[in-house]
Design goal:
eight-stranded mixed beta sheet, 31 helices, ten-stranded mixed beta sheet, alpha+beta, 23 strands, globular
């Protein structure tokens, strides 16, 4: 019999066996299809979301041939992509007038302008700030740049279109009216549009001449109307014919002072000898190449998927082989040799692996198409097209097929080694556990951990990755022994958990791979979650807030606006989630106000809070010998020194309530409670007595501070110059202060709180700045718009500022990781429970025969599932922490090296364990898996066919 004939028979037997055991076959197909589905969806999503340069150009140009911009530096030379350009000759010193852009267009070209202006418009809640862009959106050149979702494009000067994010935040819809509040112009929103390159943009579009020109004309006629501040216009250009805007057209436009991004030049770039900029600057032609980690990441993902399939589907094939051992024994009695028996089991891998691979690719493609809008929403932009590469999908399908074969390989070898007598009688034989495997695994685990830690301390991420994989392989080899030890834990437990533990220990070949699969999935999730949580903690540490947490500020722009503070305060207190009292704050200055008289040199006063020198005052990391000191410090010692009052504001200092760097405010005791969160009766009493409160003790010496002031008055400041005639006067005042504890030195935007009486005694000027409030939550869009409307109605010139906090928290990614690990955990536990029931049906029948209650079967299934899930999660947590900690050690080494070069740079590299994620995986997921297994298990045995 030929090889092909033998395999054909083996495949036919495997196909019939798969159809006979539909439940087990469906389980194996699902286990193979799920990872294939995930890899297929990830491949299509990655290829589609990664916009090509041509698609990025379409997002910039729309359907136009080119985009023209005024470089503002006279004649230029540019690179073909338009991103790099230089002036011809010297950079002009003065600002040049705008060029006549139409003279730079190719002859016979058609163009439309695009120009933006910031403005405020009425909304359903009040008033909102928004970017308004003048562009002929109905023109065909705008297609691809702006797409209409519903309604119609503007057809006149009284119409606009808006992006959907703006409409949602403003509570508006197509057909609503908005009013441009600075100019009082009214517009109707005729349509909803989206920017394919930025789905979250909040923008209004109007035709050219509909907003800026009328606004400017009204501002010239009425001085109470603020002038618009439009941006630089740019032009979408369509060349005559089909030739587009060629390189010669670009060079000609460069001579006129325009920089051009051309589709034709992108598709057919000129030779380097034809680029004038490369002749004068050859360095622009050398592009730095960056390594692509995508391939390595893709290989890792595919390898993990294969490992998951082998670990999950392998026991199913093993149970299937045992269930078919009589059939395999009969095959042996008919003259079949061991290779043919192995071929039958491997044929099951081919049949089920092929079915799973095809199903996974098909369903993955279908789900990507169905959920494409949701994926695009997460990505923040539309896909240029759904990129499907048949070659890659074929490779993924082949991998699924090969993985099915690999999963069936070990059961096939075991089945081939069984004697015909054992197969026919159903005896399993007695196998002693190998002592070599766990000892080897423990050694490999220790060796891998040492490699990973050494890679972390030496800054080699490759060693970290390799060592982590080696350690995980070693832990995998130890799992059978760990599972065997579980049986000893059940001696004092009730019947169901005791039987579940002993069954797991007795059938290690079934339990260990499932525990390993859970461990592998959880290890990856825990590693990424730990690294992300640590990076977020580092980002939070480096973030400099503008306000203290849980507060908002109401600020006035000038003296006239300050007079409208009472009405604005009433609006804030009525609209926003104010939970505490109000604290009013004023700014303080010497001489003429630099906020008003800033145009002329030396035209206003100045003030300086003098910082003493010496220990406790001068920051050692910003003084002589800083590098030598930094070389001796550990990361924790450096962090502690950076948080001292002497160093805390050396690197960054926010000026929330003033325009200078002194951060001195005039306020009363309410400011201490509301904003500083300093609940100190002594500090409040000091303010009432006229003594300033100093939050940064580094500026005090012997309980006193020194304030230098230059009282310089501008001739235009007629009111004050009459009171203070003569040349500028310099003063130095030394006065006592109440010094707060060192922890308050980090209060955003405030270094010292001065009573009003003290400011007047020192000859300083004050003006109400605004108020601060404690709020229950950050202002919503609706609340902010309502307050803006009230402020505008009162006369404008004020604004509300809130603390947005650090950037993206990565909560969605952590949630996805947790869900992924949870699904794999429950899946692996469910598979093991199902296999255990199928494998131990005789034992369950015996239980029923001896009078065990029906609920014992349910509780036994639940505890079997719980054992697998909990064991895998705990081992996976340990395995996942190793690479995360090692990678953070790599980051620590790099941060320490940078800190020793620049001592004021932070070297803080925390290691944060994501306890919520681990708690969810270690407690909730195993309990949920156990409960579901108990609920869906039959309480009574089914009818069984008698064998033999």
């Amino acid at each position: 019999m030929s090889v092909f004939t033998g395999w054909r028979a083996a495949l036919r037997i495997a196909r019939r066996d798969a159809l006979r055991a539909k439940g087990r076959s469906a389980l194996v197909v699902a286990m193979i299809a799920l990872p294939v589905l995930g890899v297929t969806a990830a491949d299509i999503t990655f290829r589609s979301a990664d916009l090509s340069p041509a698609e990025e150009l379409t997002a910039q140009l729309g359907s136009a041939d080119a985009l023209f911009n005024d470089a503002g530096m006279g004649p230029i030379q540019q690179m073909p992509d338009g991103n790099t350009y230089n002036p011809v000759g010297e950079m002009p010193g003065d600002e040049l007038p705008p060029i006549d852009m139409r003279a730079a267009f190719p002859k016979g070209a058609r163009a439309i302008s695009e120009q933006s202006v910031p403005g405020t418009v009425t909304t359903a809640y009040g008033i909102a700030s928004v970017e308004i862009i003048e562009l002929k959106t109905s023109d065909r050149m705008a297609r691809g740049k702006i797409d209409l979702l519903k309604g119609a494009f503007p057809q006149g000067t009284g119409e606009m279109v808006a992006t959907e994010p703006f409409l949602e935040s403003a509570g508006l819809r197509v057909g609503s009216d908005v009013t441009l509040t600075p100019a009082g112009q009214k517009y109707t929103i005729t349509g909803a549009v989206e920017l394919p390159a930025d789905l979250e943009a909040k923008v209004l579009y109007a035709d050219p001449g509909a907003v800026i020109a009328p606004w400017q004309k009204l501002a010239e006629a009425d001085k109470k109307v603020p002038e618009p501040h439009p941006g630089q216009p740019q032009w979408l250009v369509e060349a005559p014919g089909r030739a587009g805007v060629g390189w010669q057209d670009v060079v000609a436009a460069n001579k006129a002072g325009a920089v051009v991004s051309s589709r034709e030049v992108f598709e057919n770039p000129p030779a380097e000898s034809e680029i004038p900029l490369l002749k004068s600057n050859p360095d622009f032609g050398s592009a730095e190449s960056f390594g692509d980690d995508t391939d390595a990441a893709l290989v890792t993902v595919v390898a993990m998927a294969i490992l998951e399939i082998v670990l999950l589907a392998g026991p199913a094939f093993a149970v299937g082989a045992r269930r078919s051992r009589r059939q395999l024994g009969l095959l042996g009695t008919c003259g079949g040799d061991r290779s043919q028996i192995r071929a039958v089991v491997l044929g099951g891998g081919v049949v089920l692996g092929g079915a799973g691979a095809v199903a996974g690719v098909a369903v993955g493609l279908l789900l990507t198409v169905v959920f494409r809008p949701m994926i695009e929403g997460w990505a923040g932009h539309r896909f240029g097209s759904l990129v499907v590469r048949p070659t890659e999908l074929l490779v993924i399908a082949v991998l699924g097929l090969v993985t099915g074969l690999l999963a069936a390989l070990a059961p096939a070898i075991v089945a081939g080694r069984q004697s015909v007598l054992e197969s026919l009688t159903g005896r399993r034989g007695v196998r002693r556990s190998s002592r070599v495997l766990p000892v080897t695994g423990a050694c490999v685990l220790a060796f891998g951990a040492l490699i990973a830690v050494y890679g972390g301390t030496s800054g080699n991420s490759t060693l970290v990755a390799g060592g982590s994989v080696v350690a995980e392989v070693g832990l995998l080899a130890c799992i059978p022994v760990i599972v065997g030890l579980l049986g000893r834990l059940g001696r004092r437990l009730p019947l169901s958990p005791r039987m579940a533990l002993r069954d797991a220990a007795r059938n290690r070949g079934r339990t260990a791979p499932a525990v390993a699969a859970v461990m592998a999935a959880v290890a990856g999730s825990v590693a990424i979650a730990t690294y992300m949580a640590s990076s977020l903690a580092e980002s939070d540490y480096s973030y400099t807030p503008m306000l203290t947490e849980g507060t908002i500020s109401l600020a006035a722009g000038d003296t006239e606006a300050a007079e409208r503070l009472p009405a604005a305060r009433a609006a804030v207190e009525h609209t926003m989630a104010v939970t505490g009292g109000r604290a009013d704050v004023s700014r303080v200055w010497a001489g003429s106000d630099c906020n008003v008289y800033y145009e002329d040199e030396d035209s206003c006063g100045s003030m300086e809070l003098v910082k003493p020198t010496g220990k406790g005052h001068t920051c050692p990391l910003a003084d002589k010998g800083a590098k030598q000191l930094a070389a001796r410090l550990s990361a924790d010692e450096h962090r502690a020194m950076m948080r001292t009052p002497a160093c805390v504001d050396e690197r960054t200092s926010t000026s929330t309530f003033s325009t200078d760097s002194n951060n001195i405010v005039v306020a009363d005791a309410a400011f201490l409670d509301t904003y500083v969160k300093l609940h100190d009766p002594a500090a409040a009493a000091a303010l009432k007595a006229g003594t300033p409160v100093l939050l940064n003790e580094a500026y005090a010496k012997n309980g006193e501070v020194t304030l230098k002031a230059v009282h310089r008055y501008n001739p235009k400041d007629t009111k004050n110059i009459k009171l203070h005639p003569g040349p500028p006067r310099e003063t130095t005042h030394r006065f006592p202060v109440h010094v707060a504890k060192p922890g308050y030195a980090t209060t955003p935007g405030v270094r010292m709180i001065m009573p009003q009486a003290t400011a007047e005694r020192l000859g300083l000027h004050t003006e109400p700045y605004g108020s601060v409030y404690t709020v229950g939550h950050a202002p919503t869009d609706a609340e902010s718009q309502r307050v803006s409307a009230a402020i505008d109605q009162a006369g404008g010139g004020l604004w509300v500022q809130s603390e947005s906090g650090a950037a993206d928290r990565g909560s969605i990614i952590l949630l996805i990781l947790t869900l992924f690990a949870g699904v794999v955990t429950m899946g692996a536990a469910a598979i093991t429970t199902g296999l255990a029931k199928a494998d131990a049906e005789a034992d369950l029948t015996t239980l029923s025969a001896v009078g065990a209650p029906p609920r014992v079967r349910r509780s036994l299934s639940g505890f079997q599932c719980l054992v697998v899930a909990l064991t895998g999660v705990l081992l996976g947590t340990v395995a996942g922490l190793l690479p995360a900690v090692a990678l953070r050690l790599v980051d620590l080494r790099a941060a320490m090296a940078e800190m020793r070069i620049s001592p004021m740079e932070s070297a803080y590299t925390p290691i944060v364990v994501p306890w919520p994620t681990i708690g969810l995986l270690a407690v909730v997921v195993p309990l949920l898996a156990g409960v579901l297994a108990a609920l869906f298990s039959r309480s009574r045995p089914g009818l069984a066919r008698r064998a033999g």
